[in-house]
Design goal:
alpha+beta, Aldehyde Ferredoxin Oxidoreductase Protein, subunit A, domain 2, about 40% helix, single chain, about 15% strand, four-stranded mixed beta sheet, six-stranded mixed beta sheet, Aldehyde Ferredoxin Oxidoreductase,  A, domain 1
């Protein structure tokens, strides 16, 4: 095949064994790569009910047919596993040299199972695999780990590692690469830690097989130039996603004080313009000329990366209005290997619980020193940190007193940085996300605010589904960054041209979105299989806070969601997807998507509607 290497690497840590295996071309044509490969592998290779932190869970690194090729923002790969945080499908993408080097080593995916007897580092060098003693690395931060490994393997090696949070099985631990590239929000770092796997290092020497290499070089160069000429490019280079702070404040969607409010009185202190005043450089992923990582000097005079999500969640959501201190918390999270979005939720939840006298600890909004200590306690599971390390859903269940109503999550995954008291479409996007409450698959909020914001209409449902197929299905499986398209306006047809030159095959955008729909339905089937008889439409309903409480500040004071209208909207979403009233794919839908084997197996656990 062209575009794909056609090879997976199967690794068993318990046996210290690695075997290359070829896969059928049909897998690539039906699932593309990245998320598509990860979802299919997890469906096929783990038993329902598998403990996410057991040796039987699979940790997957997966790339797509455009990964590592010289075209805009193609240095990404997907990390996936059954999630210890949610109990369902979990994944995330990382922009890292790992993506490039894994492909150059000859692999489209690496599938890791078992548990090593003692801490190890997996070193993949082209066709050889070594299991390196990690005793001296266990306990180190992700930054320290990568720095030491670079001294051994060189700066061109692709390196990804976990920090103390992953080692201590914090259920929202992530994988970190290149001092700030983070991925795997639903606890994929904990899965890696449960396998005693400290780091993975890739070195490759072959070129990715391309159908028309000369044409790809020319096409990629033209696309890079196209990105540079986009009208928004100059401002993007200045602020990246940080401009969203000001936008969210203006539109009353900025998460504030554990999502109680949607405006923050110190928003100007943490905005993109405030960031520009302390910015020292940009960082980006391999193959990228958009470099969205804004590097600043934090309050400890160390370099730290900032983007919208981590600043909103570790800033306004916990009442902290000092950007250098926010940056220091973000750097600490990256060093420890904690997801900053879930972390900001957990800290905000803890402060509110303290103020409601539901926990003994005395915590206050915006108190930098005590919050920084709390973050360390979470990573090391000390004191109240041991409880919070399991996420807001589990913590709320343990402390009771209706805390579940203001535990801000969907399906166990903490909500990312958009407050939805007055955004029913974005609330639905969170409710139906593939991994729990995450924004990347259907970032509807901007479109919604600029159309008919308060409506629960059909147009929003159609737009969500379109975004979920395009962003959550196609981009996550190609596997390339969505920013050139969604942030600058690079036309989608560029990606069909890239595929044609890379693979030698014609993929229409219609075909690609059908693949995206197939992937989306397979992931939904995975969730339903794991929860079987417990599954109801309520799994797709956001937290009660948005329906029972109202905003008390800002221009949208008094706004809240209508539960009856939301549920009606959700049912229309199901109908359009070809799912039943529980949100379970119908047999006919799975058959149309050529997932008959999935329907047959799923029907053993829940009775499917014809």
């Amino acid at each position: 095949m062209f575009g794909w290497t056609g090879v997976f690497l199967q690794v068993n840590l318990a046996k210290y064994k690695a075997v290359a295996e070829s896969y059928d071309a049909g897998l690539a044509l039906n699932f593309l790569g990245g998320r598509g490969f990860a979802a299919k592998i997890l469906w096929d290779r783990i038993k329902p009910g598998t403990d996410p932190l057991s040796p039987e869970n699979k940790l997957i690194f997966a790339a797509g047919p455009l990964t590592g090729i010289g075209l805009p923002n193609s240095g990404k790969f997907v990390v996936a596993a059954k999630s210890p945080l949610t109990g369902g499908y979990g994944d995330g993408n990382i922009g890292s040299n790992v993506a490039v080097q894994m492909r150059r080593a000859g692999y489209d995916a690496v599938i890791i199972e078992g548990k090593a007897e003692k801490p190890v580092i997996l070193y993949v060098k082209a066709k050889t695999v070594e299991f390196v003693d990690a005793k001296e690395f266990w306990g180190l931060s992700t930054f320290e780990t990568e720095a030491q490994l670079k001294r051994v393997y060189g700066h061109s090696a692709g390196i990804v590692s976990i920090g103390p949070a992953g080692e201590n099985l914090v259920k929202f631990a992530t994988l970190i690469s290149q001092e700030g590239r983070s991925g795997g929000r639903p606890g994929i770092g904990a899965v890696m830690g449960s396998k005693n796997l400290k780091a993975v290092v890739f070195e490759g020497f072959d070129n990715v097989p391309i159908s028309q290499p000369k044409e790809m070089k020319e096409l990629g160069a033209t696309a890079y130039r196209e990105v540079l000429t986009m009208p928004l490019y100059a401002f993007w280079k200045r602020q990246g996603t940080m401009s969203t702070i000001e936008w969210s404040q203006e539109n009353s969607v900025l998460p504030t004080l554990n999502f109680r409010e949607a405006v923050f009185d110190k928003a100007d202190k943490i905005s993109g313009f405030a960031m520009e005043k302390i910015k020292v450089s940009n960082r980006g992923c391999p193959q990228c000329n958009m470099t969205c990582g804004n590097v600043v000097k934090d309050s400890d005079r160390r370099e730290a990366e900032l983007d919208y999500e981590n600043v909103a969640m570790l800033g306004s959501n916990i009442g902290l209005g000092n950007l250098r201190q926010v940056a220091a918390l973000n750097r600490s999270a990256d060093e420890l290997g904690l997801d900053t979005i879930s972390l900001g939720n957990v800290v905000g939840f803890a402060i509110e619980a303290s103020q409601k006298h539901l926990i003994a600890e005395k915590l206050e909004w915006g108190k930098y020193a005590e919050i920084k200590q709390l973050i360390k306690d979470i990573a090391y599971r000390r004191g109240i940190g041991a409880l919070l390390a399991d996420g807001v859903q589990a913590t709320a269940a343990k402390i009771g007193n209706r805390a579940n109503e203001w535990a801000m999550h969907v399906k166990g995954l903490e909500i990312s940085a958009y407050n939805c008291y007055a955004a029913p479409g974005m609330a639905l996007a969170y409710g139906t996300s593939a991994i729990g409450a995450h924004h990347k698959d259907a970032w509807l909020i901007s479109w919604e605010i600029h159309t008919n914001r308060g409506s629960y209409d059909e147009e929003k449902i159609d737009k969500i589904i379109e975004m979920q197929h395009t962003r959550g299905g196609v981009f996550e499986s190609l596997t390339v960054c969505r920013f050139p398209s969604i942030s600058l306006g690079l036309e989608l047809q560029w990606y069909t041209r890239f595929l044609r030159v890379a693979t030698g095959m014609d993929f229409t955008w219609k075909t690609l979105t059908e693949i995206g729909e197939r992937i989306w339905n397979l992931i939904r089937a995975f969730w339903v299989r794991e929860y079987s008889s417990m599954w109801t439409h309520e799994m797709d309903v956001p937290p009660a806070r948005w329906f029972k409480e109202s905003l008390t500040e800002g221009p949208l004071k008094g706004a809240k969601l209508d539960l009856e209208k939301y549920n009606a909207m959700l049912q229309r979403y199901y109908q359009k997807r070809g799912w039943d009233e529980r949100g379970i794919p119908k047999k006919s839908t799975l058959k149309w998507l050529r997932l008959e084997d999935v329907a047959k197996q799923l029907n053993r656990y829940v009775k499917l509607v014809e």
